[in-house]
Amino acid sequence: MHGRLVFVAVQSAQLLRPATTVRCRLTANIASKAAAKTCPADLASVAAKTCPEDLEAYERQLLQWREDLLKCGMDFQSLREILQAVQQSDLQRFFEQLPKGVDNHVHLLGMGKRSYLMRRLAAQDYDGAFPAFWNPQTGMILVAKHASAGYVPLPDPASSEFQTLLEFLTMQSKQDDSSGLDPVSHAWEEFEKCFDRIEQPFFFEPFFRAVVLPHIIDDLRYHRDYGVELRMNPCDKLWSFPSDRDASGQKLLELLKDVDDFHIVVILTFNKANNEANRKNNWEKARSFLNLHRLFPDMVRAFDFVGCEDKGVQLKELKDIILYMRRMSKFELKLALHAGETSWNDDTVTPTTTNSKYALQQLEPGPDRLAHVCTVNRDFKVLDLLMRRAPEVPVEICITSNLILKYCPLLNHHVTILESSQHPFVLGA
């Protein structure tokens, strides 16, 4: 393997198969023999074929571009010229040839091109298809033999109504000039609406098998990913379809397992909603999740808690279920924890910040991986705890969701803090 190109296996590999790598980066100080210890042989051979002879020249070019960008400040014309030079360079083409690794922090329902999936639903051109309907008032989509009240057939893809349908499936987080970034609760509500609108047809087994899953995998392969970590809730029976048409639970994981030459890991998700019904449901999920882990030990690798952080159950109240999942799986199920997903205000006493501190200070053992941790931008104590108590626990940075939900301002994103602190992190989708 040439020069200083290495595939860095950060600690998130704990959730994956041994020696699986998640990102590649150029570094001026790590020898190729170090890469050989962490880089699977097939990836090393790919890198060797695509790696240019003179990596030092590329590294010098990267450093020069970095200096140029820093000098530009807010001069957007200069920034544009530099970015155009990067896009047209041999280095850009070199990066495009490399395997990108594993896409982390991906929510299954958030994947796929909206227009493509809706066109296929409307066309009913897959085996076992049912008619598809939508509610023009709510944007909810339904696959069924007959339309329910308020539902009409999906619009023609060439119509303006079709564009309206796509807008319903797009995150519509609005800014209020008087209060700055969206409050967490509003952004989370909009986020949930988008998921709810597509969820029922998404998991209709014939559609998921014939359209959704191939579309997702083809898109990942096109971007040269060789694996994906999917966060999802595949428990019990979700819909009123006959059992052969319900792609939930065990059947869903069987479909994922059948994908050839592509590595899929599942992170099971509990909900943090603060009500008695959800708490009871989470314990039912726990038993179901443990059974799925026994059935698919190489694929079901971790668990997490999702939901609006500043409204949901405090993390300390979830300690029993965390301990139960770990012990009953003999600590094979890892805790890949959402921690500090928001930085929309400076209040260091919010549940978001409190939960981040609790995860780092009180959980024993601590989390195996942390997602977001935007709170390092709100409270210096979080960064201090991260550095002292979890120096080898990587943080998943999910810039896309941070910006779409407007949980993190771009000019003050916490990735810069983690980079300067040298704490390990991985960029997710």
Automatic annotation (TrEMBL):
<dbReference type="GO" id="GO:0006154">
    <property type="term" value="P:adenosine catabolic process"/>
</dbReference>
<dbReference type="InterPro" id="IPR006330">
    <property type="entry name" value="Ado/ade_deaminase"/>
</dbReference>
<protein>
    <recommendedName>
        <fullName>Adenosine deaminase</fullName>
    </recommendedName>
</protein>
<dbReference type="GO" id="GO:0004000">
    <property type="term" value="F:adenosine deaminase activity"/>
</dbReference>
<dbReference type="InterPro" id="IPR032466">
    <property type="entry name" value="Metal_Hydrolase"/>
</dbReference>
<dbReference type="GO" id="GO:0046103">
    <property type="term" value="P:inosine biosynthetic process"/>
</dbReference>
